[in-house]
Design brief:
alpha/beta; homodimer; 16 helices; 3-stranded antiparallel sheet
Chain lengths: 349, 349
């Protein structure tokens, strides 16, 4: 069985290339997840560190997708979980009640992932466990310890939190693929994330060996995404994604000591706090200036100055607000067209 | 005319997908360039900041490739030039004498590139000018000012010197492509560099819109590359390329104040000096420790400790020393096979 056949067994509605929205906390709610799944992708609800709120989103998704109920009784969406700081025991009842098709675990050690994997498989055996990692070592370790149903490989281009230092999917995917093969674990499908915003990136990820492709930044411009208008505007206006976004821990640290393990930082649109840090200003003063800007901003908020707009290097390719179904269908079509051209692909001038 | 047809007009021996070795200073000499060109790729001699030495390499290449003389009289290889700090006037006689098929300009402002472009086109009108950039803004500016025959887009995964902060080719290529199209300069072919070491990466780059693909790190393991055995061994042994390599200016600064513009740093295998910097040790002390290690190393040199092994994130995929022709042929074949599969590409488990 191929990886895609394997995935289609539990995501029977999915069309290929499989498009997945990143489980962006707060931004990817049931509204986005439902729209992406309905368009033949895999919709994800981002983690909400409040059980009642996540319950509400799952309930909404269940109601809206009742006509799509999958044979094994799973809810045809995925749910993201940020593992560090979240004791699995508190969350199991939610997964037992809603049985999402996929739970996407992220930001944990392989032991933490193991606890979550076993816990979820215990209460909802048909839920598939996808685990996000950002290095070859983490992929191998996690594959061995957890036997996940898929590994999500997050490259350095990704917006939001991720490995502070790492490769893009260009080398990460092939190296993980080879290492899993060497250790007889090539049955595990790989999902690519980071820097992919349109059909060319999706086609490239497929060539690298991905069985599915995640887009985060592109969906920030989806109508169904929960994002303040000025954030969406900043996303649409940003150009030159490798320059206008930067990786740093400052985007968390302006709010006080960051709870994030030191392994991780995050990619945001470059803002005034980042510029302060880059100029060598001590953190205490960076924070003071940040709060001054925040107070000033109560009259007229300049989010580019004081906000943290999480975005990946593909942000320069995001040009307009669209509904999620249009994004999914268009990207899938663009990718399929390029893949069909194959060796004969050559831009006519 | 397509981009590839355009390139084949001046590289008639080239086979597609076009494989190019990075002009790695010191490592890519005539021996490597000749072997890559003979295998149907585009061989490059790296820049040597000594006219006599570069002359010697060009003379060797000319002698060895005399049977391959191209109709317009160009020498069927490329030559890399590091532009900052190199006055064009001092180098023109060399390009006038040897007329390389391609001169690959790197690390300059668009104005510096312009001086070089006009200078070379003046003395060798059939030489094509390729210019390496690492951001969308630099690509657009350079395209406008220089009208290069190709832009080489270097992503963040690349080994050696490059933009300190930037996107990988996953988003860089599509964004540059769209911006050039918008400004009616889509006739300029794009060449992808950074993180590509084998067929999957090459196929991905083609999907992203590349007309040719550069590999540096992979060729560090080529028999024809000029590299001390312990450096080659470090390349072969390195795994988890996004973790074992890091970007930093320390790899230059241990030798004294770096002449490199602040825009750039370099990607190397992580070494003791990098770890010192990461631990917050002041630069003066980092340099002192480096020289202590160097002296100690005269008995038994530990290059992982004291050396700067320039390498990209693809280093974990480089597993053995091979001749350059085998690398070129194998990578081209792997890429072509994947591209042929196109939409039906799906790993069988």
């Amino acid at each position: 069985m191929t990886h895609i056949q394997q995935i289609k067994q539990y995501l029977p509605w999915a069309q290929t290339p499989l498009i997945i929205n990143a489980p962006m906390s707060g931004a990817a709610t049931s509204k986005l997840a439902v729209a992406v799944t309905r368009a033949g992708g895999l919709g994800h609800i981002g983690f909400l560190d409040d059980k009642k709120m996540l319950n509400t989103e799952l309930e909404k998704a269940k109601r809206q997708l009742s006509d799509m109920a999958v044979t094994n009784g799973t809810l045809p969406i995925g749910v993201g979980v940020i593992v560090f700081g979240s004791p699995v025991s508190q969350w199991l009842s939610l997964f037992a009640a809603y049985k999402p098709a996929v739970v996407w675990l992220s930001f944990g050690t392989s032991r933490e992932f193991q606890g979550w994997t076993e816990g979820i498989r215990g209460v909802s055996p048909d839920t598939k466990i996808w685990i996000q990692v950002g290095s070859v070592a983490a992929a191998l370790d996690t594959a061995r310890v957890c036997q996940p149903d898929a590994l999500v490989l997050q490259g350095n281009d990704a917006g939001g939190h991720g490995h502070a230092s790492g490769a893009s999917i260009i080398s990460l995917l092939p190296e993980v693929s080879d290492v899993l093969c060497k250790h007889r674990m090539s049955r595990i499908p790989l999902i690519a994330a980071g820097g992919i915003v349109e059909g060319r990136g999706v086609a490239a990820a497929i060539m690298l060996g991905a069985a599915g492709v995640v887009m985060g930044t592109r969906f920030l411009a989806a109508e169904e995404t929960n994002l303040p208008p000025e954030y969406r505007e900043a996303i649409i206006n940003a150009v030159d994604g490798g320059v206008s976004t930067v990786r740093s821990r400052v985007f968390d640290e302006t709010w006080g000591p960051s709870p994030w393990p030191v392994l991780y930082d995050g990619r945001c649109l470059r803002n005034a706090s980042y510029d302060d840090v880059a100029a060598g200003i001590p953190m205490q003063e960076v924070v003071r200036r940040f709060h001054l800007r925040l107070r000033k901003g109560q009259e007229e908020l300049d989010i580019k100055d004081s906000g943290s707009v999480w975005a990946g290097t593909g942000v320069g390719l995001v040009k307009k607000v669209e509904d999620a179904a249009s994004i999914v269908n268009q990207v899938r079509l663009e990718a399929a067209r390029r893949l069909e051209k194959g060796t004969s692909l050559d831009t006519h001038v």
